């Protein structure tokens, strides 16, 4: 059972937004855009919270709505939800509403009119706008919101996925407690099933019980000191109340009690200490390990009937150096093969540009508009050869994924322009710092590859400028670029250098040395160049980059 879509209304920074989900889902965006509120909304949905404080409401006069489309149900879940399956026979929609001023949380599910019985009709409300539950609806059918389709605790513990939430800051001590309800406790209890069969442990436990309680009514075998203490107390009490005695009833702990109360995680990284005393990076890694072990346990014990799991992780790159970030992203992709993974990130290492359908760009232009999610769930590259080519481009240089993090992207042909443009900008105006303006420079390897990237910019509505050489011998590629930019709806434009970067510079008196590393030679040349000698055409382009929307 997985999430295919979520509707969030009036929750924190959200006004109203519908979000599509994939097995692996990355939410990226600037600080304070509302990325973590996606995970917090899901965490709230899966909890049995009845009332919320005012801070959760975007507008306390309106209801919070969190509505989730579930699909990929196993056979048991389909049987349980059969009255609530939509027209595709795969999707269930469940909804929670919260009011700040009035009633507690309400829980409803979508049900087809054909599936309503007399009892259901008493508290069912017809859905007037079918767009609220699209796309799995039919024009000739009626649908209803059915109140309390199941008891929440029963459905949450029985069939809904278990949402494993790792916020940006979390004390590992909370997750490493051993109890019947904690995930680590469940892992320990599962282990105990075999541990408690150990003959030596059973014998020791029997001996311990005998020492505390004795082995018969006369308490033979009990510790002598306990008997002596009872006798002393009884004698003193009997001097005041004849015939009255005292006994100590000591209930020895079971082996399960011993494990639950006396187990804690020690991590030895050169110094063996409790996990909560380690650094935040290691603590988060241990929490993640516990979650993965819990997932393995469920699959081992329950097989195909195991509850689905959804990993919700805020900024998995936190406290990890670059190599570990790459490794962690590989782990998340591996987990998503079986369990859904949803995360927020500021790191391009966690974005696979080729899997653009799994990317949500989170933006918040102003408080009135609230948080919005930019996605593109259709095929940008319908032809398989184009799709293959684009994947090779992104695998060749994963750094190109930075394009999703910029407010504006400058697309250039190669590394020479990429390293030179920021230097030129700073010489023209010290305030022209690309990163301060949220501008990302992306090189795409060659002119013929530019249309691939432009298609992505257009799909995600990312403002951009394409800078390319006219290169009269390659006019067809220029036409392709211009055609793609023309379809951008005004978010993109081109700047053409005649005839190419090196010749244009040479024509204005700036000769870039040849031989060796061309990008480095250009970097050194412009680093040492006086501002007034910068070619006029490059000055024009830089001014447009920073001043034109």
Question: Which properties best describe this structure?
Answer:
single chain; alpha/beta; Rossmann fold; 7-stranded antiparallel beta sheet; 6-stranded mixed beta sheet; 37% helix; 19% strand
Largest sheet data:
7 strands, antiparallel
Low-confidence stretches: none
Helix-residue proportion: 25-40%
Q: Nearest-angstrom radius of gyration?
A: 32 Å
Discrete helix count = 18
What would you call the shape? elongated
CATH class of the largest domain: Alpha Beta
- Compute the average pLDDT: 86
Overall description:
- With 549 residues, this protein is of the alpha/beta class.
- It has 3 domains: 2-173 and 277-363, Rossmann fold; 180-263, no CATH class; 379-547, Rossmann fold, CATH 3.40.50.
- Helix content is 37%, strand content 19%.
- It has 18 helices and 19 strands.
- The chain has helices spanning 35-46, 75-80, 118-121, 152-158, 172-175, 183-195, 199-213, 224-238, 255-262, 280-302, 322-335, 384-396, 415-428, 450-460, 475-486, 501-507, 518-528, 536-547; strands at 2-9, 16-20, 24-29, 64-71, 92-98, 106-112, 124-126, 143-147, 162-166, 266-268, 272-274, 309-314, 340-345, 359-363, 372-374, 408-412, 439-443, 464-469, 492-497.
- Strands 2-1-4-5-6-8-7 form a 7-stranded antiparallel sheet, with helices on one face.
- Helix 13 (415-428) runs parallel beside helix 17, helix 13 (415-428) crosses helix 18 and helix 14 (450-460) packs parallel to helix 15 (475-486).
- It is elongated.
- The chain starts with a strand and ends with a helix.
- 30% of the residues are buried.
